[in-house]
Amino acid sequence: MSILFLKLLLAHFIGDFVLQPKSWVKKRKDHILYLLIHIAMHTMLLVLFFIPELSDQWQIILFISCVHLLIDSAKIYFEKKFPRRTFLLFIADQTLHILSLVAVVWYTYGLPVNWETLFSAKSLLYVLAFVLTVFVSPIMLRVFFSKWTSEADVVNKPKNSLVDAGMLIGIMERLLIVLFIQVGFLSGIGFLLGAKSIFRFGDLTNAKDTKFTEYILVGTLASFVIGIAIGYGLRLGLKYLV
């Protein structure tokens, strides 16, 4: 079972990332030929990986090739419709591809699902911590800062910042904080705070604006407080509820 999945996964990553030039990715949006060449490349890779048992596995190769074509076609369609959602579409695309491979392995061998483990207190606590860190905390911070967003000098200060970059940085730093707390690497939190302070030092120095400086400092500390609270909440939950 593991050999089958590893073969499928390796063929997928080689076909999608090694043997697909950047020019093909751009051109296939307007010329279907490049998409078909990409699918043919995937099919040949699968044939190569399954040569010893080709007579038994040709259905798998055909299924994966067809599903890959459907997923990539859908991605191209949505890229044209939502050109600024490239990263989300990339994640969705790769997730669907990998799920299709899992489905093949599941159909071929069957994957026993232990529902008690899947919905155990430990699993639910990890999922809860992830949801709080990635989805709930940004909204909490947005609401927390809503009373200051009307101040023009604060809102208009980061004119050259990337779209949603601050939110993504905050999510990643809180994920790291939660991880550091779980593995007992508390000094990593200090390192993270120090690193962020160094990178922000230039902005704060050049800004020469007390309100903007306070805005950044409050945001950083609030993000860290939430991350630490979630991290220790998860740790205590795993200790006393599991």
UniProtKB/TrEMBL annotation:
Entry-linked Pfam families: DUF3307 (PF11750)
Source taxon at top rank: Bacteria
Keyword Transmembrane: yes
Source species of the chain: Sphingobacterium corticibacterium
Segments traversing the membrane: 32-51, 57-78, 87-109, 124-145, 175-195, 215-234
Keyword annotations: Membrane, Transmembrane, Transmembrane helix
Protein name as annotated: DUF3307 domain-containing protein
